[in-house]
Structures are given as C-alpha cells and as structure tokens.
Amino acid sequence: MIKKILTAFLLLPTLLCAQINTERVMTIARNALYFEDYVLSIQYFNQVINAKPYLYEPYFFRGLAKINLDDFQGAEADCDAAIDRNPFVVGAYQIRGLARIRQNNYNGAIEDYQTALKYDPENLVLWHNLSLCHMQKEDYDAAKEDLGKLLKIAPRYTRAYLMRGEVSLKQKDTIQALNDFETAIDMDRYDPDGWSARAIVRLQQGKYTDAESDLDQAIHLSAKNAGNYINRALARFHQNNLRGAMSDYDLALDIDPNNFLGHYNRGLLRAQVGDDNRALEDFDFVLKVEPDNMMATFNRGLLRAQTGDYRGAISDYSKVIDEYPNFMAGYYQRAEARKKIGDRKGAEEDEFKIMKMQIDKRNGVTTSDKDVADNNQDNEDTSKTRKKSDKNMENYRKIVIADDSEEDQKYKSDYRGRVQDRNVAVKMEPMYALTYYEKSSEVKRIVHFHKYIEELNHEKIFPKPLRITNMEAPLTEEQVKFHFALIDTHTSDIVSNDKDAKKRFLRGLDFYLVQDFASSIDDFTQSILLDDKFFPAYFMRSLVRYKQLEYKKAEAGLTEGVPGASVDSKNQAEVTALDYDIVRKDLDHVIQLAPDFVYGYYNRANVLSLLKDYRGALVDYDKAIELNKDFAEAYFNRGLTHIFLGNNKQGITDLSKAGELGIVSAYNIIKRFTNTRE
C-alpha cells in the first residue's frame, strides 16, 4: 500500500520553484526514497528543509521515509508540518493516517481519512484504510457502511468483500461472511487470501476436509505464508493426520522460524508420537520467547522426566506449582520424579498434598486462589484445542490456536532495505575524542567544529588536522610507524624545551593513538601542569582515563554497569565509581574553561549515565542540544536515558530526531520500544 502511494507521488513533477541547487538536492532525495534508501533520503530532505523551510514537500517526503523506517511519531510530526504549509495535499493526510494507525490512534486516523476524502472522494486506498480503522475500533456498522460506499465506487474490488466478510464474522454472521468470501473467490480465483479466509470459516464450522482443500489452494497460490501452513496443520490434526500436521509445522517454521504456535504445537505432536528429544527443543524455544508460559513449562517437565532428566523436570514442575498451588497434576508428576531421584520425603509431601486436595474436593471445600478459578473453568470442555490466552492448566495437552485479536487484519509494510530490522545492541553512542583519523560514513557527513580547535589547526603545530569525532578509525600499519616516529621527534623537542604545554599534548596524542594509555595520561597531565587553561588536555585525559577504566572492566570480565569492587586480573586494581568521578572532574574543568565546547557536556553526560545518574545526564544532554540543535548523538543518548527512566514517549521522540540526523540504529530501537511500551 505504501509502495503505491510512494510511486504515485514520486511520479508527480516537482513543484519546487527554488534555486537550482535546491531542486537538484530534492531530486536526489526523491530518487533515494523511491529506491528505498530511506536513511540517505532523509539527510537530503534535511538539506532542503534547512534551505527552504516554508516548502511542504520535503516534510511530506521525509515523513514517507520515516514511516518506512517504522518511525511513526517522526512521520506524524513531518506530516503535521507539511499540512501546516499546504492543507490540501491528500497524501499528507494519508501518510499521517498510517502513522497514527501504527500508534493505535484510530480516531486521529479516521479524522485524517475523512478529511482526505473531501478532496479525493473516489480514492480506494482512503476508503480501504478508513474501513480498517472502524474495524479496529469494533465499530462494525460504520465499517460496513464504508465498505458499501467503496464497493459502489469499485464493485470488483475483491479486498472490500474480504474485509466485509471479516466484519460479518465479528458479528457472528457466518452465512454473510461465506457469501462475501465466495464472491471474492469467484471474482479472483488467483488471490490466495480469498481461499484462506473461507478456510478459517470452515475450520470454525468443523468442516476440516473442506478447510484443508481451501488451504491447499491458498498454499499453491502463495507458498510463503506461514499462517496457511499453521491452519492446514490444525485441519489435519482434527482429521488425526498427525504426521501431516507436523510436516506443515515444519514448513511454517522454515518460513517463520520464530512462530510461537508452530513450535508449541509441533512440540505437543512430537511428544504424542514419542519424538521426545525434538519435542524438548520446541518447548525450549517457546520458553525462551515466553519464559513465564506455565503450560509450556509443565509440558517440558513431562518431557524431561520422559528422557531421564528428573531434576530438570522437578524444577519445571515446581515453577508451575508456585504459580498454581492447587494444580493436582503438578504434584502428582513431581512426586513421581522425586521418587526417581530417591527424594522419598519430598514425594510423600506431594502425595499428602494430593490426598488433602482430594478430600477437600469431596467435602466441597474451595480456596480463594486465582488458580482455582482458572482450573475450574471449562473443565468439562472436550475440545482438542484451546485459545492461546487460555490459562486453564488442565488444558496443557491441547493444541493452541490464535486468539481472535491475533487473527484481526494487521497493517503491514514489508519492504526491502528496512534498516530498522537490523538488530542492534541498545547502548549509548560513544564518547568524543580529539584525533587525526575518523571513520567515513555514508549517512553522517557532519564536520564537528569548535573555534579554538580550528585555531590550533591554523597554528600548523599538528602533523595532520585535528578532528573532533566519536567515530575513531583504527590505525594502519603505516600510520602506527608514523606515530611511533613522531613520539621520538616530540621527545627530542621536549628535551630541548620542557616548558611547552602544547608539545606535551602532541606527544600525548601520539601515545593515545598507539594505545599507550599510561604514557598518554602522563603527558596530558604535564601539559595541564604547564598550562592549566589548556582545556584540550583535560578533555583528552578524561577520555583516555575513561578508556583505561573500560579496558580494566573488560579484563575483569565485567560487561555492564559501574563496578563497586571488582578486581582487574592483570593490574590487581579496583575499578570503582570513584575512578569514574575522576573522569567527570576533568570534564568539569573542560566545561569551566570552555563553556561553549559542546562535546564536554556530551562526554560528561555519558559518564553520568554510566554512573546511573540519569537525571544529571539529562541536564548535560539538554545543554549539549541547546548549544547544537543538530547534535545527533546527544539526541540518541538522551532518548535512551529517557527510556531507562521509563519515559518511553519522550525517548522515542529523541530517537526519531537522532535517526533523522543520521544515526541509523535509532530506527531499530524505536521499533523495539514502540512494540513493547504498553
């Protein structure tokens, strides 16, 4: 759907009446957007916005790029800006509507689509999305009314029949649903969704042979839909074709290796046919995804006992009993496992508990435990399946089917080149340094600047221009030789004149580049003693000390947090919060001497964040952003800091800005925290 919108708008002639350079940048940006290079396109749109902030187009297209990166807040904000500049652009309402849908703001999306339809009343996509919004709100009468209008405009639009059939199913009108699904199939027998939809109804009706036949056809037309294999496995299971069902689960998991239903149900079927070890693998996977799933835990316990791992089985049974203290089967199985390992006392305790529960049941005694209600519900249910949300432990052997909410129509934008799908570690952007070498980036092309550093470069005292960067490049073999030679040269200069602070600083940089941290700190310290107003020496000493501490932590096997009393295996020195406080004090001097040096605030914020002083870190990130409104790394780290404090909405806003400014990993993190921030 987004692809169609994108194609339609990119084929429009540009309305820019600006200078040739702006037109050229806009053309390049739109080319990048069309070919799905979304991050790069955003950088170009930023340039156009900076040059001509009154134009609506760059905001609109940047919003379109952001929605493809799952940055829905950012996309909505850009569409707001586009609409403010030109309220008659249908596409801006359309994209903002999609962004609002992804944020579960269906009322806002409905308002956008209704406004857009005033300007373009025969736009099928607008009617389509408006209908889906009403379906999501469970306003089924409004959805049917919208779909009726849509079918008057486009009577052969099969998707509308499928959607109306879904609405009828929600209203328990199976006959009308089947009529609409069959109409869709008659109109387009090559659309797999029609066959899949009718199969769902036939599954609900218990017509498993017919359902399997429909799913055969759907799979023939679209072999890469894992859901069709999952549903066909269910149809085959009800026909006692266990091998066929397991084969379908295998195929579904080949397509979608993380499918919960596939692993859980295949594990049950493997256990039924005696394939216990492979069944264990499936339940191990399920419990990695949902470690608190008690039914999976109990099933794994049964399998562990079956394969001789009685202690593992007891661990699983105990976890279930802790959650459901009146689950009789749990005590029975744990008693049997305890007998196997010779724990007669434990087994007797479990058997006594079972006997007491049986007596209480005969005497009509009940408890107020949550699990009693759970275990008594549907106890007489003889069906072979259960809903995923069913917590009745007595149904632990039943095949799982999706909840109704999971079967609803989903909004998908599955396109190539989506950088937010690359899993990245959730960690802060690194510290800034003064160095000669910087990694190149196709996205971030900002040259970091400070007046004093530029003045030092003009003095020609450095062998290469000094750069401010947090993307330091490793040295090549030739560069290493070059800096070792420079150390010798600087040493000779220092011997002849040991009162020059800058010469000490120069050699300190060389030592830093060749990883001699101790010598580097010594030289930076001497530079400070010779000139206590020379802030670059404080800045670099803080950085080298920070890296030295991080190295010690790594040597001690520490991976995160500030150690309180950890011993470095090599240096037998403790790395404590006080050590990081020394780093912070150097940065205090930098800020005192150069209050406009934005990188001092940024680095100090990183140190405070590492010390878990998130409030203090936010103050420094705020100041860094105040000094440089385009400071991408500060937005990124401030966003993570807000998330650490539980302020996800503020955090995502900052991460959106960081992504807009070129930090690609922000989009993956936005996606992950958007999906989990309920």
UniProtKB/TrEMBL annotation:
Q: State the residue spans of region: Disordered.
A: 364-391
Residue ranges annotated as compositionally biased, kind Basic and acidic residues, are 364-373
Q: Which Pfam families match?
A: TPR_1, TPR_16, TPR_19, TPR_8
In terms of domain of life, where is this protein from?
Answer: Bacteria
The protein's UniProt keywords, in alphabetical order, are:
Repeat, Signal, TPR repeat
Provide the leader sequence positions: 1-18
InterPro entries referenced in this protein's UniProt entry, alphabetically: TPR-like_helical_dom_sf, TPR_rpt, Ycf3
Q: Any idea what this protein is called? A: Tetratricopeptide repeat protein
Which organism is this entry from? Bacteroides intestinalis
